[in-house]
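seq:
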Amino acid sequence: MRRMLIVASVVDPAGMNISQHLRRLASFKERDFPGCVACWMANISDVEVYLVHVESDIIYCEGVEKPFNPELVVYASRHSSSVNIPALTVHVSGNWGNADYGGSPRTISVAYPKYVKAALRLLHVLREERSLDGFTVSQEQTHHGPTVNIPSMFIEIGSSRREWVNQLAGEIIADTILQLVENPPENCVNAVGFGGGHYAPKFTHININSSVGVGHIASKYHVPFLDRFLLSQAIEKTVGGVEMFILDWKGLKSEDRVKLINFARERGIKVVKAKDVKCS
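struct:
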């Protein structure tokens, strides 16, 4: 039987908000599980779904997934930002450079692009259907811990306490996670995105409106430091491999574009400008 693991931290009000709605919307039954503050399990569409609470901040909760051996880990979390823009965000964890906020340095987690894509699409639809006014839906670049050797992603409420405890936002993310279980996403054209800022509106648009799924993203701030080791990780730590490098052309220096194009050519990967990806 397939398994999915959902992780939330008891010190995270957004995580607790999402967890509360998960347990309201689905038939979770409490279980005893070593190493967790609390654990619940539900059988949904022939998938064993485990929901666990951990004590540490979620970006430092290394190894919680190992006893469960899930197909996918979803971290239900808060997103923090100094600009306090209300947002529902999705991203893969990992560090292109130093491990300043959890995880291991120069190590990224495993991306599952079709799930990242499906999560963004669902958030976009549910935000509109349920009138979550003022919130954006956004993909972020790959950042922070934990570093996980099985497919995983963060789905977050941002960007201040006012939003973290917003009940409609918590319900929408909970519903998104459950729909990912009930309706496994179709395969897509797997891609890695390069360039632009921390928030990735071009790659968000591609995920929502095209047949391409962007998993890992490295912003323009990290691309200059990407070497063959890190670029190889971006390919090897993407479920199903990578067919395409998508470049935010104007969001990259010319020497960085050349580096990425040369590496992709060696690996037989297609390079496409973000503006040239066919979207509906």
